[in-house]
Task: structure prediction
Amino acid sequence: MTDDWTAARAKASRLDAADPLAGLRDHFLMPEGVIYLDGNSLGAAPKAAMDTVETVARRVGFSSRSHFSRAFKRHFGVSPLSLRDLPS
Result:
């Protein structure tokens, strides 16, 4: 069983290294040594998910957190802060 696991992990590592999107890995929260193979999941959380609402608002071009929060709620029906404490 250990040999099967070792071979499977080695194959996953090769596939991961050859992934054309591997360069985007730095934009996601992934523990060192984790090999993420896309499946039926939302995948790893973007690092920006940990930013404050203020930081996100400025990054996407809003002049204030309150303006961003109002636009976000108008579009999604919930405030950005209401999503902060959802389980990942």
